[in-house]
Amino acid sequence: MHFTSYLQDSRLTVLLTGEIDHHCAKTYITAINSKIEAYSPGMCVLDFSGVTFMDSSGIAVVINALRTMNASGGTLAVSSPQKQVMKVFRASGIDKLIKIEEEVS
Description:
alpha/beta, Transcription Regulator spoIIAA, 5-stranded mixed sheet, 3 helices, 5 strands, 35% strand
């Protein structure tokens, strides 16, 4: 588990990498919430381009970020999920709650 984040024009981008499962989900949730609280962005984008595997624990990461952004009046988007991750998003229905920017290949 590793992530990088940067803020540009009130848009916080969080680049997630590796596998997101029950072993690291809570750490991701805490770290992302800390970044959102520290920067108060108008928009937060979770970039999943570096995530190679995700189980349902990854949905908790996204939902927690959504709740935090909603509480602060901001919006959340997900970008560039790989095929396996997108299958989890679709199976959970999260793709109907959050804007997902799929990478065009």
